[in-house]
Design brief:
alpha/beta, Rossmann fold, binds glutamine
Amino acid sequence: MTAAPRIGVLALQGGVREHLDVLRGLGADAAPVRRAQELRGLDGLVIPGGESSVVDKLSRHFGLADPLRAAIAGGLPVYGTCAGLILLADRLEDAAPGQRSFGGLDATVRRNAFGGQRDSFETDLVMPAVSEQPVRAVFIRAPVVLAVGADVEVLGALPDGEIVAVRQGRLLGTSFHPEVTADHRMHAYFLRELVGWRHEGDAHAPGAGR
Ligand code: GLN
């Protein structure tokens, strides 16, 4: 794929604009998704941070939850950040009453996992699969991945071992918010490795020519 990929940003609540800006800056054809029919023809989808229980409720209210599950099952590349990671997880801890997720990612995720002074913080995260240099990671009332299935690759963890970035096939999830920094390597990784997009003139990149 060399033409600009069409990437949706789930736009029910949360940090939609920031993701659209980052994706467009990287050359993607990015558009907000509020209705099921807007899922059609996408090459990928970003589920932004926000409040996962609100996005869950709104997605059911607007009839998006089941089409989204079907799209995930059908292999749509999806990147969930923070609340988006919660929404991708098959199993939740400390969910709001009645809260559901879209699922697809064989992982257990705990909401609001960093209490007190660590409620919100920034750090440089070593993620060799993503980049040789550490990635700037901003955590805002962030979730953590407690357990993963055999098919899930752990991309990043904090020094104490808490898992904060995972990939399973075409699903990518991070506890942190790359869209609020000037460091756009997570989005670039998503477009390159999960969506399979190669820029024209990028012929020397690994896997180019697909
Ligand atoms: N605490 C939020 C939730 O449970 C996630 C926070 C975020 O996305 N920054 O959905």
